[in-house]
Amino acid sequence: MTYLDLVMVKRLLFLFAKDSYDSADTSSQELRYLAQGVKLWLQKINWDDVLPIPLQQDWSKMRVELEQINNIKINRLVLGIEKIKKLELHAFADASMQAYGTCIYTRATDIYGKVVINLLCAKSRVAPLKVVSLPRLELLAALLAARLMSKYASKLQLPINEYFYWTDSTLVLNWLLSPSSRWKTFVGNRVSEIQELTSVSQWRHVASSDNPADIVSRGCFPSQMKGLDLWWNGPSWLKGEHTQWPSNFQELTYKSEYLSEEKSNFLSSDTNIYGPVEATEIENALKRLVKVAQQEEFFTELCDLKNSKLVSSKNKLFRLKPFLDNDGIIRVSGRLKHAVSLSFFQKHPIVLPADSAFTKLLFLDEHEKSLHAGPQAMLANIRLRYWPINGRNIARNISRKCVKCFKYKPVVFEPIMGDLPKDRVEPARAFVKCGVDFAGPVFVRSSLRRNAPKTKAYISIWVCLVTKAIHIELVGDLTAESFLNALRRFCDRRGYCTDVYSDNGKNFVAVNRQLREVHELLAKPEVKNESSNKGIQWHFIPARSPHFGGLWEASVKSVKAHLLKSIGNALFNYEELYTILVRVEAILNSRPLTPFSTDPSDLSVLTPGHFLIGDSLSAFPERDVTNIMENRLTRWRRVVQITQKIWIRWKNEYLNQLQERKKWSQSNGPGLKKNTVVLMRDENLPPLKWSIGIIMEVHSGSDGVVRVATIRTATGVYKRAVRQLCPLPFEGNCTASSNN
Asked: CA 351 to CA 17: how far, in whole Å?
């Protein structure tokens, strides 16, 4: 027996509605069942009462339509393209007297410019039993859109570039443009929540005929939905460029004039105005918007000017000597009354409040019209007609928060300089802890013949983290094999090291894999006793972050400077160039670390060379003999005592010089957090072509300061230093940095 064979009673119909539940509300069918259920409650029909004939007919039609659900195929692949360059979410909201709802669409653009739009989810609500006005239902729909977007955006786990919210209610847009405290409790509470979840600049107006949420609010039969492209893919113009979409500021002025015309047509039955909006009508709309903005912020000033034609001397407008024109608009009297070459608007510009939404929209419109000009040019163009209070700061704020302008001149986050790692402040034999980097290429002659061919070579520079001692090797190329040979020569001459730091060069990464295999071989029982102290642990700094390896980067700079000053562009063979590099190594190892004593007449200094010749490469640790009298020591112990005193001077004098932070003494720039949208700096590309990504995780140091972050972009996941990241300046994206 089916539902068709049973008697139509209230209990059976609610059981029937329960079986057709749609969790994502993508079919918009459940809304009709809920609306019919409301009718049953309003007519006070009991659970086992037979339904009236009209309701039975409605339910029978819906049962037949429900079978068409099987013919609808919903594409669960939301994005539908690979290599996404830009991802946007668009939420549409609408309401009717029966229900209100919202639907969200994904707009994905690939690297080839192809745009794909798909329905992500939808949500509907039946209108309350208590009668609510249609504008308030539209506001409830807008709130539902903001809540649904906030819920689903975080669940996608994708870098979303922009959010857009669309409504066909100009009254809702007007509510959102003003502070929530201005409205009554019902409207104010919901406007406040929408303003917390979204940015006012993200809201736009859409025509009712192009609003897919209209299908949600009114419901739709399955037989009508199969080929309904507006529902599954949104309005057709959404696939076009942003310039083809409605403009916020222009839309506001046009709608203001449109509403004024509708009011005039309604009050006057003799004349009707049709056709396109003219320039005079736009001018009238701007005047009305200016009067509304001035009435909100300058109510006291308007009353004073109407009564006494003067404002109080303590008023912020007093220095402008304001007056009311024939339209009741406050203008600046100023001192340019006799400037014949200036227009009336420039001599007496309209006064605009600083905190008005109209003022901000005016600056945004001028910023785009002037092709993203700077604050000075933007303010100069605005002052041809208007005099905004605190206009310079408004122009700077608009320019600072413009994403396109930010891409052209991005601002990076600079964390405070970190504490020195343990490997730099603990005494150890030279080159036990070291960093390595390459310099070059340099050209080497293959022989002494005049026409001998020249080949490329590279300089491998090893720096001791404790003593700043330098070791230089000449390498034939940048392959892992050549570097491994240089590593063997370095270890044979300077002793084995336990920790090596380097950047993420491919040759270093390949050597690390080989060293791991070698170390596993040496860890076998038969060779463990002989090789237990020869394992090398490799540490890599984040990619494209040379400031993490400032110690060896500075040494590379010093080596290059000495070579440039001494040999210039001269060509040498391998033996000659290697001899010069060894001389450069000796010079750099003779640089003073600190005065050897505090006596001004003592010219001896503590240099890295003291640590290179003060201990054998295979020497064992010696016991402390610094407190033993010299006459009680043998000659060998006397040498050991001198060596140990050098280390004491290193600890007491050299380490103290490392306390001060020479730069990056505090964190500067906007703070970073999880889900922050950033630009990734790439020195090989102009700023406008830098990749956009979203921070998946931040990595803090031992002092709690974030210096590295993991970023997901359209091309993959990367780990970068925060100095290479530029958070985009839209509202809620980044936090204010704390000066540590």
From this structure: 59
Q: Please tell me what DSSP assigns to residue 183.
A: S
Contact indicator for 415, 663 with CB cutoff of 8 Å: no
**Is residue 216 helix, strand or coil?**
helix
* Biggest distance spanned by C-alpha atoms of the chain: 123
Q: Name residue, tokens 């050209």.
A: 443
Q: Is-contact 454 446, C-beta < 8 A?
A: yes
| CA 677 vs CA 132, 542, 710: distances in Å | 40, 20, 12
Q: What is the DSSP string of 242-292?
A: GGGSPPHHHHHHHHHHHHHHHHHHHH-SS----SSPPHHHHHHHHHHHHHH
User: Nearest 10 degrees: CA dihedral of 412, 415, 420, 422?
Assistant: -100
Residues of the chain scoring pLDDT < 70: 1-69, 223, 246-277, 413, 418, 504-535, 542-549, 566, 594-605, 614-670, 734-740
E strands in 333-469: 350-352, 386-388, 433-445, 454-464
Residues with Cβ within 8 Å of 525's Cβ and at least 6 positions away in sequence, in order, are: none
| C-alpha closest to that of 204 among 275, 254, 258 | 254
- Any alpha helices (H) in 549-704, and if so which ranges? 550-566, 574-588, 608-613, 635-649, 655-657
State residue 399 phi and psi, 5-degree precision. -65, -35
Alpha helices in 19-109 (DSSP H): 30-42, 53-66
Note the pLDDT tens digit of each residue in 580-612. 788 788 778 877 776 555 565 554 567 787 777
Cα–Cα distance for residue pair 507/515, rounded to 1 Å = 12
- Under a CB-based contact definition with an 8 Å cutoff, are residues 505 and 442 in contact? no
Number of H helices, E strands in the chain: 26, 22
Contacts of 78 (CB under 8 A, 6+ apart): 106, 118, 120
Quick one: which of 16, 96, 84, 1 has its CA closest to 56? 16
Q: Are 729 and 723 in contact (CB under 8 A)?
A: no
Three-state DSSP state, 735: strand
Tell me the per-residue pLDDT of 637-694, one tens digit each, with 9 for 90 and over.
Answer: 555 565 565 556 555 665 566 556 655 556 666 677 888 888 888 877 887 788 888 8
Which CA distances in Å does 88 have to 158, 164, 204, 264, 316?
10, 8, 14, 40, 43
H helices present in 46-102, as ranges: 53-66
Helix orientation angle between 170-177 and 248-267, rounded to the nearest 10 degrees: 120
**pLDDT value at position 740?**
43
Length of the chain as a residue count: 740
- Could you please report the per-residue DSSP string of 452-485? --EEEEEEEEEEETTT--EEEEEESSSSHHHHHH
Rounded (10°) CA dihedral 252, 257, 258, 259: 90
Contact by Cβ (8 Å): 47, 69: no
For 589-634, where are the alpha helices, taking DSSP H only? 608-613
SS3 175: helix
Grouping H, G, I as helix, E, B as strand and the rest as coil, residue 295 is helix
The amino acid that residue 144 corresponds to is: L
